[in-house]
Amino acid sequence: MRSSQLKALADRGQLTPEDLVRRDGLDGWRPASKVEGLFETPKSSPLPADRTKGESAGRTAGGPVVFEQVGPADRSPERVPDDGDDPAGTVDAEAPADAGPGPVAAAFSGGGRLATGLSVVGGFVGDVLTPLGPINGYLAAAAACGMVVSAFAYWRLRPTDRSRWERLFPQQAIVFCTVSLAGFGFWLVAEQLADDDRGVVADHVAAVAAVQNSLLDLQGKVDDVKSDTVAILGETRRIGAGIEELGDLGGLLKDPSTPAEYYHNARVHALEGSFGEAFDDYARYVEFNQAFVDPLADYADLLRVQRGHVAARRELAGLATRFPENPAVRLAAAELEERAERVSRLERLRTDVPDFAPASLALADAYSAAGQADRSGVDADREREYLAQFLEAADAGEVHRWYLDKQRAIAAVKDARGRATAAAGPGGGLVTKTRVFLGDRGREVWVMDPAVVAIEYTFDPNIADDPPGADGWRETADLVRTIVLARGPLEDVPADEPGWDGMIYVRFRDERGQWGPVYPLDFYEARRAHEEHMRKTFGPSGAPHVPEVPEIPKMPSIPSFP
């Protein structure tokens, strides 16, 4: 029987201190009075006569009564004998009732064994998946968090329960998390010390390295699928909006023979969903080697949506190799590259073909806020610069000739004008335009852009167009950067030299190493503005009024004593 039942028998007087008890499975009998906590005070009187009948409720006739000690259900049972049993031996009253495995024994049982296997297998898998991320680092962090939670729960236990390490929570949870942390931490440290950044196993087993290469290829394909899915959604919306355009275009042209006719049929096929026929018509259009922007842009979009970004880039790169003198083909191929390569190719195209206005618009797109999330003031200046170049070409009538569909040219110019107006901002760009001006009576240059890391200046207009770092340009020393601006002092300003017109030429570099345009600043105008501000603030004198401090009377001298 359980210890609680045995205690109830003792409380009712059915079990006396003189009765013998024994733990099941152990030799020896002892009086019940030796069992700790069973009797509050020793009892030596025999059972009352009127309770002898009730004693059978707690005993088994003709044999011992089995009971379990207070504690977990899996502890060894004890037996309470009656008067007919052999009283040879006594119970070991010295053994604690809650004795169980300690923390070291628990570490090699239950949670410890499970955590060891998990850390070995999981650490191996995490090491193989290292190219996808620090998997073992994440698992070690999770084990550390679990250990902290379990330790807090252990601290909240009663002192009598803390030594019972067979409990699943929190004792076994602490063991599990501690062993897991040690295992995953070992894998993580070994990965950091490995010669290859692909993990420990791949560094020694070629087959695992091959598996990792397959995983990386699969990840690349998944990324391409995600990118293509976004493009497909955008293309689907564009095609939906193109239903009205299909009505404007009319039907297919029979027996096309000119580039415009093939382009017309390709657009109709694409809007109808006949992509095979659309590709055929675009292929026939390309053979004419026409320098129109819109057909090639549509062809590239259709390739990217239907065959993937990589296939589109490969196709346009082949066309650029076949027609290296065609600026429209070079533009379409450059637009499929990553941003850095795209900007580089567009800059070369703009240099090679200065009157090719669509390249300026593409560069403005690359430097726009949509083209990069963390752009600097240099990027904003370059966007405005390229938009201005494109609009200048539009005003000169040099844009429409690069578009086969003239409505596309009109829409491009209209969009560029709207962007240029928004980039200027109200009041000449007080909000969005980078502001460069002189402060401290013209002795400092201030740039309202926290991304600026260097400022150069010169007083010579003859070298204002020289590249950064050229002779005659100086870099401000002791540059101060705040969360809203960067400022630096100007040294050796020739304010009193005859013949100097007062112009200071300034440019700056951002955190990505990009140099902004040259800003001409008027030193004398800045000084006049400063003096006017001081007069308005402090009156005609232009200096703050400092009240006179009355003279403090001298203290009389203290006579000296001998």
From TrEMBL:
<feature type="transmembrane region" description="Helical">
    <location>
        <begin position="138"/>
        <end position="157"/>
    </location>
</feature>
<keyword id="KW-0812">Transmembrane</keyword>
<dbReference type="Pfam" id="PF14237">
    <property type="entry name" value="GYF_2"/>
</dbReference>
<keyword id="KW-1133">Transmembrane helix</keyword>
<dbReference type="InterPro" id="IPR025640">
    <property type="entry name" value="GYF_2"/>
</dbReference>
<feature type="domain" description="GYF">
    <location>
        <begin position="4"/>
        <end position="38"/>
    </location>
</feature>
<keyword id="KW-0472">Membrane</keyword>
<feature type="compositionally biased region" description="Low complexity">
    <location>
        <begin position="91"/>
        <end position="104"/>
    </location>
</feature>
<feature type="region of interest" description="Disordered">
    <location>
        <begin position="535"/>
        <end position="562"/>
    </location>
</feature>
<protein>
    <recommendedName>
        <fullName>GYF domain-containing protein</fullName>
    </recommendedName>
</protein>
<feature type="transmembrane region" description="Helical">
    <location>
        <begin position="169"/>
        <end position="190"/>
    </location>
</feature>
<feature type="region of interest" description="Disordered">
    <location>
        <begin position="1"/>
        <end position="104"/>
    </location>
</feature>
<dbReference type="InterPro" id="IPR011990">
    <property type="entry name" value="TPR-like_helical_dom_sf"/>
</dbReference>
